[in-house]
Amino acid sequence: MINRRNLIGAGLLGAGGAAAAFANPERAADLAAPAISRNRRRLNMVTTWPKGLPGLGEAPERVAQRIQTMSEGLIEVKVFAAGELVPAFECFDAVANGSADMYHGAEYYWPAKSSAYPFFTAVPFGMTAQEIMGWIDFGGGQKLWDELSADFGIKPIQAANTGHQMGGWFRKEINSLDDLVGLQMRIPGQGGDVLRALGGSARTLPGGEIYQALQTGNIDATEWVGPWNDYALGFYREAPYYYGPGFHEPGASLAVGVNLRLWNEMTEGERAMITAACESVNHTSLGEFTYQNAVYLDILQREHNIQLRSFPDDVVKAMSDAAQDVRAASGRDGIEKRIYESFESGLKKMRDWAAVSEGPYYAARELGARASGT
Fold first, then answer.
1. For the segment 236-276, what is each residue's pLDDT rounded down to a tens digit?
2. Backbone φ and ψ of 105, nearest 5°
3. What are the structural domains, with CATH classification, of the chain?
4. Is the pTM of this model over 0.90?
5. N or C: which end of the chain has fewer CB within 10 A?
């Protein structure tokens, strides 16, 4: 295997070498033969997302395409949607045991592996998109994530972010804490643990199974992402009340997991290209979700008469209190405790910054917009 720098160098040698052959005819025979042998990799990526879903379904396709482009075709990645090669929630095991090379999914789908995994997607009242990027990239999160995942034979990389999500679609209004008691809701990760603590029942369903469960009454409510993806899945047709804020996922980070043995066999250049492709999609997805959610919220309100609601203050307070306990319970010892403590330390630092930066700015922007009538 060769790295990209060598490939570029070989290309430059080909251009400059032709001219050199005129000056030194003895080199012509050497230049006629390939200077290098270019090996290829063909990799399979399994995903937790329905085929063709905007945003989430596109993210792994973009990762694959950018890897192929940067490697000049030396690394080909074939993407399989949920159920095409393995079921959505079996992606982790497929990569861990080597039956697939990579997955694209949400780390909070793997709590059975470790209670710390949700910290690398989203936890209730936790980090926003830019904050989780800050913690993983600069606050020690990646090192801990690598350590956690190495035990399962996986190398994890951030590879998309949905930004702030909505609280979900409900068949009935939520006017008090009593309305959560007995509520059957599709909500994974620690968000589901919070709902259980408040008397509800949480279920984890892959995206392709949610609409039918809502349509048949097997669940009373569901969260997914935000207006863009939620519109595509049609939840507004079954549950008219759309609640926010999304306390459970303030900035959901998605991931590529690579089989660790394969990762270690790769050249430094190959690993750099895969990492760069994931980082690029992480950036692209956040901007795309931010813009498209605004577009589709307008469509849902104008064309489908959804009922936009905010959770009552007492419900938000109870959720926040429960979230503190749920987060703490997931990090009681071992690496889970170290991840929890690192996350909480990073969150405190960035909350203090947000309190004097983004928070006041958003408030001032709204005040100014209302005053000007825009």
1. 999 999 999 899 999 999 999 999 999 999 999 999 999 99
2. -170, -165
3. 39-162+251-285 (3.40.190.170), 168-250+291-337 (3.40.190.10)
4. no
5. C
CA-wise closest residue to 174 among 362, 318, 71? 318
Which H, E and C letters describe the chain, residue by residue?
CCCHHHHHHHHHHHHHHHHHHHHCHHHHHHHHCCCCCCCCEEEEEEECCCCCCCCCCHHHHHHHHHHHHHCCCCEEEEEECCCCCCCHHHHHHHHHCCCCCEEEECHHHCCCCCCCHHHHCCCCCCCCHHHHHHHHHHCCHHHHHHHHHHCCCEEEEEEEECCCCCCEEECCCCCCHHHHCCCEEECCHHHHHHHHHCCCEEECCCHHHHHHHHHCCCCCEECCCCHHHHHHHCHHHCCCEEEECCCCCCCCEEEEEEEHHHHHHCCHHHHHHHHHHHHHHHHHHHHHHHHHHHHHHHHHHHHHCCEEEECCHHHHHHHHHHHHHHHHHCCCCHHHHHHHHHHHHHHHHHHHHHCCCHHHHHHHHHHHHHHHCC
Distances (CA, A) of 160 to 62, 85, 163, 222: 10, 22, 9, 22
Spatial separation of the C-alpha atoms in residues 321 and 327, rounded to whole Å: 10
Per-residue pLDDT at 110: 98
Token pair 């090192």 in the structure block, residue? 143
Report in angstroms the alpha-carbon separations of 188 from 95, 123, 152, 204, 353.
21, 10, 21, 5, 29
pLDDT of the residue at 298: 97
pLDDT of amino acid 38 = 62
Which residues is 241 bridged to in the sheet? 170, 307
Q: Which residue has the tokens 């997914």?
A: 224
CA dihedral 115, 120, 121, 125 (to 10 degrees): 80
